[in-house]
Design a protein that fits this description.
This protein is of the alpha/beta class. It contains 16 helices and 14 strands. Helix 11 crosses helix 12.
């Protein structure tokens, strides 16, 4: 059956189009720099927000109108697969992502759960044979069920640690079978509420052991996808071990795991960590660990993960600036870990929201590429730090200066000639490029 019978395949119609179900700026075949928009952006559809989210919030029941919501259990799971691939085809989506419990219901035991998962994976595999849409990444949900009340790989309960390991083992097998380009670790409950009852050292050691087991098993089964860690601050615990990119890098380097992992950076998580989206991307990029992106945005007036579709063109421009500087996302992509607002409950709103997000990143791509081509920021920054190209500055960067040399240089210096950072001018320049790129 057709689940979105009122929607035809979404086409590019250009900036003057009045059609809500058409791309205005995302033209997948348009060449930007050295590749197409589709190759740069590598958009992915999040299975959980798009096909399982029902609109429930802390103050109200689910209200989403979905043609499959009358079904239950495995019949519901199968209908979602059918709807998903219809959606992918009509959106022309290159990738999708899922948690294990998104695609198949849990049974009373892990054996039953795996049986359900195998049946749905069979179905997905069949659809993928005739679909252009590939699996960007999959992951294991180890935060929803009450068994994960104290965490998964950091749980104080060794049985839960073992259960979590078994889930990831199955997830890696599914990833290999479906040709996933990445596998994500999202530590939804890998943290603590209070040190009064927490052995932080043991929990972090166990988390490192867990990651090493995953690395070892991936090698054993021949899974060659990229491992990604998704930083997540504040929610649900006060002290998350994967708080931000910098914290994650320190953890990986401590346990010699950094050769095996990169980061899947979510915009809304950056906000919750007190950072900008571009900050987290920059930290990952300059450390060679920018792997993939969960493309969304938060509401700065709310203190939780609102997972809104990205429409802030300033943010998408600065994000794509980092991604272009990174040479692209490699095996990663831009996955819309975003959900329609509760008031947008019609099935067609799923298309409208994705179109908005895809157009927003297309704008960001074009503007960022132009900024880089014109060296707008590069030349300003190079000039700002020019004192390190000669004299004492060059001695500092080349390791020729020590404290004694530096003291001698400044001991009788009377004036220090600083220059304006001109940040307002630079912001105005970015605005100018945003307004004149099309």
């Amino acid at each position: 059956m057709a689940y979105f019978e009122n929607v035809s395949k979404i086409q590019y119609e250009g900036p003057t189009s009045k059609n809500a179900l058409a791309f205005k700026f995302y033209n997948p075949e348009e060449i930007i720099g050295d590749r197409t928009m589709e190759e740069w952006l590598r958009f992915g559809v999040a299975y959980w927000h798009t096909f399982t989210y029902d609109g429930t919030d802390p103050f109200g029941h689910g209200n989403m109108i979905r043609p499959w919501n009358h079904l239950k259990g495995m019949e519901l799971a199968k209908a979602r697969v059918e709807a998903a691939f219809e959606f992918f085809e009509k959106l022309n989506a290159p990738f999708f992502c899922f948690h294990d419990v998104d695609i198949a219901p849990e049974g009373e035991t892990l054996r039953e759960t795996n049986k359900n998962l195998d049946e749905i994976v069979d179905m997905i595999e069949d659809y993928m044979k005739t679909s252009k849409t590939k699996l960007l990444w999959n992951t294991a949900n180890m935060f929803t069920h009450p068994r994960f009340v104290h965490g998964a790989a950091t749980s104080c309960n060794a049985d839960v640690f073992a259960f979590s390991a078994a889930k990831v083992k199955k997830g890696l097998e599914v990833a290999k079978r479906l040709g996933a380009e990445n596998y994500v670790f999202w530590g939804g409950r890998e943290g603590y509420e209070s040190l009064l009852n927490t052995d932080m050292g043991l929990e972090q050691d166990n988390l490192a052991r867990f990651f090493q087991m995953a690395v070892d098993y991936a090698k054993e089964i021949g899974f060659s996808g990229q491992f990604l860690i998704e930083p997540k601050p504040k929610e649900p615990t006060k002290h998350q071990y994967d708080f931000d990119v910098a914290t994650g890098i320190a953890f990986l380097k401590k346990y010699d795991l950094d050769p095996y992992f990169k980061f899947n950076i979510e915009a809304n998580h950056a906000t919750l960590a007190g950072h900008t989206f571009e900050h987290e991307l920059r930290v990952a990029r300059i450390n060679g660990m920018l792997g993939s992106v969960d493309a969304n945005q938060g509401d700065p007036l709310l203190g939780w993960d609102t997972d809104e579709f990205p429409t802030d063109l300033y943010a998408t421009t600065l994000a794509m600036y980092e991604i272009i500087k990174n040479g692209g996302l490699g095996k990663g992509g831009l996955n819309f870990d975003a959900k329609v607002r509760r008031g947008s409950f019609e099935p067609e709103d799923l298309f409208r929201a994705h179109i908005a997000g895809m157009d927003s990143f297309a704008v960001g791509l074009k503007v960022a590429n132009k900024l880089i081509e014109d060296r707008v920021l590069d030349d300003f920054i190079a000039n700002r730090y020019r004192s390190y190209n000669e004299g004492i500055g060059k001695d500092i960067t080349q390791g020729k200066a020590d404290f004694k040399v530096l003291e001698e240089h400044v001991l009788d210096m009377k004036e220090f000639k600083n220059e304006s950072g001109r940040v307002e001018e630079l912001r105005a320049l970015v605005n100018q490029y945003l307004l004149t790129a099309f």
